[in-house]
Amino acid sequence: MNKKTNRGVRLVVSAILGLSMLSALIYSVPAPSLAAGPLPAETNLVKNGGFEQDKADWEDWGASAVVSTDVQSGTKALKLGPTEGGMGQKIDGISENTIVTLSGAGKAGTPGEKAWIGADCLDGSDKKLAGGKFVLGFESAAYERKSLAFRTVPGTRKVQVYVYKNPGNGKFAYVDDVALKIGGSLPDDDPPIKSVGPLPPPHPPGVFFDDFKNGIDPEKWLIAKQQWGGENVNGGVLPVNVAVTRDGIVELTGNGDLYSGPVRGINRDGSMRADGKRTGASIVTKYAYASGSYEVRAKILPKLGAVSAFWTFFNNGEVNHEIDFEAPGDKSLRKIMTTTWVVEERNTSQVTDFPEQIDGNWHVYRFDWHTDPKRVDFYVDNRLIYTSSTNVPRAASKFWLGVWFPKEWAGTPNFATDKMYIDWVKITPFLEKGDVRAGNGETGEIGPGTGWAGLNEYPAPR
Known about the structure:
Residues 194-433 form the GH16 domain. Pfam families: Glyco_hydro_16. The protein is mainly β. Strands 14, 16, 17, 19, 24, 25, 26 and 28 form an eight-stranded antiparallel sheet that branches. Strands 15-18-27-20-21-22-23 form a seven-stranded antiparallel sheet, with no helix packed on it. It contains no helices and 28 strands. The two termini are 31 Å apart.
């Protein structure tokens, strides 16, 4: 998810993008498979990418129509909306370790909408492969042309190309001239990290550990007061939803669609909303850490629609270095999603079964982040569930723990109020030579207008 401070709209593309990013894009009907012999360079492997033959060669996933207005080239284009929908087709004969270039044109019909052109690497049984999702996003009022070269991931036997619009604001978006070609120049897999504003202060030496027996210490923790995820998607994360008990249990409250209490959410500009529906809570380390072992003993909020998450986050407007633990995964509370990012356009992600997380007991969520060589190992209760070795961050980042409400991909929050619980947090720095410390525009100030709670908004133990 910005799922965190610097982004405007963040569509989380999950395991599948993110999930992060486009986790909503899971369809049970397969797209047409287009057989290919030897695949020549510079030939568009997407059939009818300009929609001049209407929907021929595409599998229709709904909420799409071919139009003869609002076109980028030729005489036709595809209009997506007003609800979630799209189309897709599969291209056989593209093997692993092949450089291909995805391109196309798109635009948003109205502010707040977004069109996507994407590609998924598939194995021989049409299963989507971890780290094999690549997307182009379009949200300007006029058509833009974009392209992205990528290398297919291990196990690839075909590529599914798709066009998509998320639920958005119930309006429309447009795409045209979709193409996939063999060859291209790969982007930098690990772009340079530019420092914006002052460097963050170094974290205190040694292991960080907090069991919250002394409450939420402002010398260790910030409390977020921000909104992300898109306009009108949620009411942000609020200090009033953060509490701590006298025996050191942090309670992070999420208020769903049935909430009718006195809490009021906020908009991205900090203005108040009319109600407190879809409001969450988040605490964040005051200091930024890089490579290390990050552990949290927690109980997730056991309701669909609200995401319980633990994540590092650095965004300077050019790169997005992030590591995520998020539940639910694939709209299931019995699954968890793990993701690594270096830019918003691509990530490496996996959804793993973990039904124990809703058994009411405490569980330890941990990832070991290495920057030399780059790798992130994800564990639950000391069991390794996934290793990411691509799109691995290097920038020192604050560590976030929280409950927030994304747009659709976690389900619908048909509940009033529930809580996520934190027992303790531990960070063991590795101090590896790949670590990078850079500024992301933050000044270190707290209080009104900063995105962080003032000292008067920190909860007293109860």
